[in-house]
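Escalated from tier 1: uridine-5'-diphosphate-xylopyranose holo job.
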Amino acid sequence: MKARKNILCIGAGYVGGPTMAMIASKCPECRVTVVDIDPERIAAWNSNELPIYEPGLDDLVSKCRGRNLFFSSDIADGIRNNDIIFVSVNTPTKTFGLGRGMAADLQYWEKTARQILAFSESPKIVVEKSTLPVKTALAMERILNSTKNNIRFDVVSNPEFLAEGNAIHDLESPDRVLIGSREDENGLKARQIIADIYLHWVPKERIITSGIWSSELSKLVSNAFLAQRISSINAISALCEKTEADVVEVSRAVGMDHRIGAKFLNAGVGFGGSCFRKDILNLVYLCRSQGLEEVADYWEMVVKMNDYQKERFLQTMLGAMFNTLAGKHICLWGFAFKADTGDTRESPAIYIARRLAEEKAVVHISDPQALKNARKDLADIDDIRYIEDPYRAADGCEAIAVLTDWDIYRRLDFKKIFNRMEKPAFIFDGRNILDHKLCFQIGFNVYPIGKPPLTHF
Ligand code: UDX
Ligand code: UDX
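Tier 2 regenerated the structure:
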């Protein structure tokens, strides 16, 4: 189990970087190299300012970097000198051609397979880390075996389940590690080699194995189920607002049934992140391409409900503020798609900011980690103010909308904030994290999600 292994990861992103840092830290006898086509990203991984913000990541990287963890731009050299190749390049939703807006864009994936084929001089185990449509491994095998160079390639699926902001904990103590492979002699051998890496720190009973197609599909289905819970509770939040029920009370009562469970039942402004939307659309596309229209429609509703929730939030703001936002200053607290990350991919805040700008509001954006990304996301919109300090960001505004569940927003001096805002002052709590009664007593008109609003008129 402690044999030295040379491990490569292609793709130094949110998945590849932290995962390889954890492997390097737990397997000191392994040499782990991470490569990427983007030299700036690699330079950042080699600097004191890592390209992604993730609690605990800096320590992990500084412990291993230069010892048995290396970041490099030399992809060819990496492929030549390593036996196990993890692939975690991005697989965004296609923006062109057949399957546009739904299917996964596999161009980077295929390019990477061809690079592996071109530079390999010895047998490799190729590990799919990226989330992919079912049967992608088959395409990979076909590419890798397309020339008669007598090099053996085994393709294994080992999907990543880490959640951003909690990635280090998820990697250190995963609910499960899933390894799928072909069930012939070579496939089973490759599966065991990958399992041996994780056995350094993950209890044996948490490492589960399966056929390769089940493994690929399990990742898509896990994300679909998680997102489905959020859309379900968000749908109920709309009903709560009409019936004076309180969604927090409902989700607590529902979640205490241990068959349902309490997690992922927080209603909010909608889910974001690079995975949920992309993976569900991918699943929907797969179902449709197999002629399963009803199954496709069922899962597509999860995404449609999420879009509805974002627009519903905007309409609540508009309705509460006398049906006009033109010229009004509105402060967004939080731009990241969730707390403890600077990542803004698919963040509901992007949609809300754009809709507010369309309504001709002047948008102030505040976030402790995501302002750099926010500027890129909204580069085409003039007159957006980016202000890190939440107090200064709210100065002179008519309304605050809480869009990310950052802890700091819970502990602010709301009296001070209220005094410096235009009146009547509104708070739209898109994450239900504030003390609504307190804010109301101070003078705010408060609109939570899935609860009756607290207003002074
Ligand atoms: C990505 C996918 O989004 C996700 O679906 C998948 O499950 C894992 O990989 P993430 O790590 O968050 O997740 O993506 P990102 O941060 O964009 O990292 C991908 C990296 O791959 C980028 O640094 C990119 O430069 C690199 N890349 C891309 C390559 O090295 N080669 C390529 O051909 C394309
Ligand atoms: C998700 C999966 O959790 C992870 O297993 C997979 O590997 C990648 O995709 P991530 O996107 O990083 O991880 O974050 P997650 O914690 O799942 O949150 C996704 C979105 O759902 C966020 O916008 C979050 O705010 C929202 N959310 C989450 C809710 O609105 N309500 C909840 O109860 C939980």
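Residues 160-164, 223, 226, 230, 264-266, 268, 271-273, 275-276, 337-338 surround uridine-5'-diphosphate-xylopyranose (ligand 2) (CB under 6 Å).
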